[in-house]
Amino acid sequence: MKPYSALYYVKENKGRSLLIAAMFFLTTLLLMGGNFIRSNYYYWEGIIDYTEHVIEVEASVNDEEFRDYYAIIDKLSADPDLTVMLHSGYAEPSLDWVGTMGFTMGGYAARFNTPEELKEAFRIIGYEGDFSGLRNGSLVVSKAMANNKGFKLGDIVDENQGLSGTYTLDAIIDEDIYAIFYVEEFPKEKLMRAHVMSETLSYTELMERVRTACEGSQCKIQKSMRDEIDSQFQPINLIFYLALVLLSLVLAVSVNSVIAGHYNKRMYEFGVYRAIGRTKGDVRRKVAAEILVTDLVSVVVGVGFVELLTFMLNELYYKPGGRFLPYWSEIGVFGVIISNIFVLIPTILLRGRAMCKADVTEF
Predict the structure, then answer these.
(1) Residue 30 CA to its chain's centroid (Å)
(2) pTM, full prediction
(3) Helix, strand, or coil here: 197?
(4) DSSP 8-state secondary structure symbol assigned to residue 161
(5) Per-residue confidence at 64, pLDDT binned at 50, 70, 90?
């Protein structure tokens, strides 16, 4: 290994290099910070996926005797690509859950008129479980939701948990969806909302088919929750990005200060390089290489540490309680990248420029 190489210096000066590496290591903790922020969205991903498999068509209060609604239901039911199921038009109370960051979030609920309709809907969507015990008054939740609420099969869930009636938890599905599903029979005259599903159509095709059928009517179509959830989390993401920029600036100043002291002690070394004919470009490249190698090693180790810590937190703490911390997130990755850019660019430019001014005759 050549003495002028970046790896040689790092190898021969482990103590100083470790100090700088520790500063770069701090930037990788932003990955975990971003993952915690993104974890709030994770709990809605299953619900968003559900609402893109099931489109709800609801009667309007202005629809006299619900003529439009029944006409639309007949039209949709006649489409061989669609499955239509009637359910209650009343609002369904749901259950709150506690997220990874400890925030309590509201839930989502869907009511089916019969056990057979719920089983058929789950078959189309792909939810699996033992549904042999379903009956009128049954409640179905996911394993994650059950763990989050501390429920087990056979538990009674009633007004004390925020529901409008008394239900028995008769089935648990494996999907990570934080929602509850009722089986409750209602009189036909109260079934003013319908589930519309398809085994063959994509969400876009299904939505277009339903919109075409409802065109010119007073019926309402419930859209996917994706846009609504994205808009709700947008302010949180914006706050994180602003905090990210501030933290990156603080890290940039801190790292540059540590590295400045480190390189000031090497002025004589770089003065010798200049005296033996190394150009300013050579010096800048050496400084850049040393800093980049240290940063690369620090980021690799730091990301590995974050992933290992995330795995341990999930397996030992979050998953048993029906929660989850994502291993990756766009926000977290962006945080690591932007903080390293803020740190590396000024550090490389300033230190490279300072080392080019080293003159052995001054020592």
Answers:
(1) 15
(2) 0.83
(3) strand
(4) G
(5) confident
Q: Which two tokens stand for residue 10?
A: 């790092």
CA separation, residue 230 to residues 41, 70, 351 (Å): 8, 33, 42
As a whole number of angstroms, the distance between CA 262 and CA 266 comes to: 7
Angle at 202 between CA 201 and CA 206, to 5 degrees: 65
User: What are 309's two structure tokens?
Assistant: 């810590």
> Which has the higher per-residue pLDDT, 52 or 26?
52
Q: Give 24-90 as a DSSP string.
A: HHHHHHHHHHHHHHHHHHHHHHHHHHHHTT-EEEE--TTSGGGHHHHHHHHHHHT-TT-EEEEE--S
SS3 108: strand
Domain that holds residue 92: 46-224
Domain count within the chain: 2
The span from the CA of 280 to the CA of 355, in Å, is: 9
Nearest-angstrom CA–CA distance, 170 and 27: 47
Instruction: Name residue 168's beta-bridge partners.
Output: 138, 156
Tell whether 50 is covered by a domain. Answer: yes
- Look up residue 170 and give its two tokens: 């008769």
Q: What is the mean pLDDT of the chain?
A: 87
Please indicate, yes or no, whether residues 22 and 57 belong to a single structural domain of this protein: no
108 and 212 housed in the same domain: yes
Confidence bin at 325 (pLDDT 50/70/90): very high
Say if 86 falls within a structural domain: yes
Q: Which of 196, 224, 252 is the last residue of a domain?
A: 224
Q: Given CA atoms 314, 180, 196, 121 in this order, what sign does their dihedral have?
A: positive
- Amino acid in position 153: L
**Quick one: 32 and 132 in the same domain?**
no
Domain-located, residue 102 = yes
Which tokens belong to 307? 């992933």
pLDDT digits (tens, 9 = 90+) for 225-260: 888 888 888 887 788 788 877 877 787 778 778 788
User: Is 212 found in the same domain as 101?
Assistant: yes
The answer to the question of residue 329 being in a domain is: yes
Task: Return all residues near 235 (Cβ < 8 A) that are at least 6 apart.
Answer: none
Residue 188 shares a structural domain with residue 254: no
In the prediction, which pLDDT does 91 show? 59
Q: How many helices (H) and strands (E) are present in the chain, helices listed first?
A: 10, 11
Overall size of the chain counted in residues: 363
